[in-house]
Amino acid sequence: MSLHSAIFSVVVALATGVSVTAQTPAPPLFRVFLHDGTALASFGEWARVDDRLIFSMPLAPGAGPGALHLVSLPVQRVDLPRTERYADTVRASHYAATRGEADFAQVSGTVADALNQIALIADPNKRLAAAEQARRSLTDWPGAAYGYRAGEVREIVGVLDDVIASLRASAGGGGFELALSASTVVPPTEPTLPSPNHSDVAQQLMSAASAVESPAEKVSLLQSVVALIDRGVDLMPASLAAMLRTTALGGIAEEQRTDSLYSLLRSSTLAEASRRAARADVRGLEQLRVKLRDEDETLGRKRPEDLAGVLATLDAHLDAAHRLRLAHDQWLLNEAGMRTYRRSAMPYIQGLIDVRASLDDIKVLGGPAPQRLRPLAQRLDRHARRLALLNPPSLLSPIHASFRSAYVLAERAVQLRLDAVTGADVELARQASAAAAGALMLLERARLELRAAFEPPLATRFVAQP
């Protein structure tokens, strides 16, 4: 065959059979295959998100975007290799029915134009390069087009190889380079399934309900089965419709019963946990955890998320019980020292209590009498120095510091009041008022805290966070 004849044969082959017809096929229906062979229809592509496979199931034959149910399956329930092969088949079929002919016509026209120009190129090496580029365009085509018309392309490439061989001989070159070896693209081979009818859709929804993990999602799928049967009661065999409807309603009732049992288990467990945490009953909380797991086992471990939430709350209660128990034991350890401190500190605490009226007079800028200020300052100083000599237990250190601060402010208030009276200085009197107010506030707060410190720790101090 001459070079011109070979080129002519390739161009003719490229042009043969290319007819572009506008088509608008229905949206492709994918399938998700379970390990037991069940095929679930998927409207559009499915998506894998971590360990979940998510897709939209039609709720009726030929359903559009407005009648879909979003399904989330554990990947381990899915035959992923077969599901992926089927997706390749659907993509290839959809491509062939929509863009395949037009795209093939475009690439064919491009290659044919390139080959027509080869005869006009005088330089043998440039002609060879143009032919090799045309060949690459063809060999790359099947891989980008889901194997569409791969057999025809291989035949055309075979003829084009003869053209390139002749051009190489003319250019003084040898055989083909490895980079130009023809690629092998195997079109998808997973057989396509027919569109599901009413019976198929109902059975697939039942299968999906058995495969999902979320109880709410399961109930929703079962309710969709009942709704489909009620709408199309005459569109499937009566015996099948009755069986599926009974099974779906039974499944819904069972899920509702399970929800009720777990709700009761959750409420009773948490109520008992609160009571035991309030008593710092650590062993009781541990036993409650074991009991919860045993009852969950009896119920079939059907609500793992609910159980995880209750266990987390139990852990919080247990932590609160640990802290409450430690606080109580610490209080017992310090109780004797606290009582000793209170007996020693009480005269000086009472000393502050006894001058409250005078401090209140200073606070309102209404006294006391000038001749009382110096003796009052001396008494406060004497009591403050004696209080400072006491060594409180660690639990009462903050309270002891508050009493000492109250004395400091009281002494300051009396001294400022004396200076204000001496100099008839209203600004100093106001400063004395502020110091007196602070002393009275610290005294009252420290007294309340001291009283509370002698009560055993209360559970309300340690609230478990859910």
Written account of the structure:
With 466 residues, this protein is mainly α. Among the domains are: 3-37 and 79-180, no CATH class; 332-460, Four Helix Bundle (Hemerythrin (Met), subunit A). 68% of the residues lie in helices and 6% in strands. The chain is built from 13 helices and 5 strands. The strands form 2 sheets. A 3-stranded antiparallel sheet has the order 3-4-5, covered by helices on one side. The chain has a two-stranded antiparallel sheet with strand order 1-2. A hairpin with a 2-residue loop joins β3 (47-49) and β4. α1 packs antiparallel against α4 (150-170) and α12 runs antiparallel to α13. It is elongated and about 130 Å long.
Fraction of helical residues:
55-70%
Secondary-structure class: mainly alpha
Strand order of the largest sheet: 3-4-5
Topology, number of strands: 5
Question: How large, in whole angstroms, is the Cα Rg?
Answer: 45 Å
Number of helices: 13
Mean pLDDT: 84
Through-space gap between termini:
86 Å
Order of helices and strands: HEEEEEHHHHHHHHHHHH
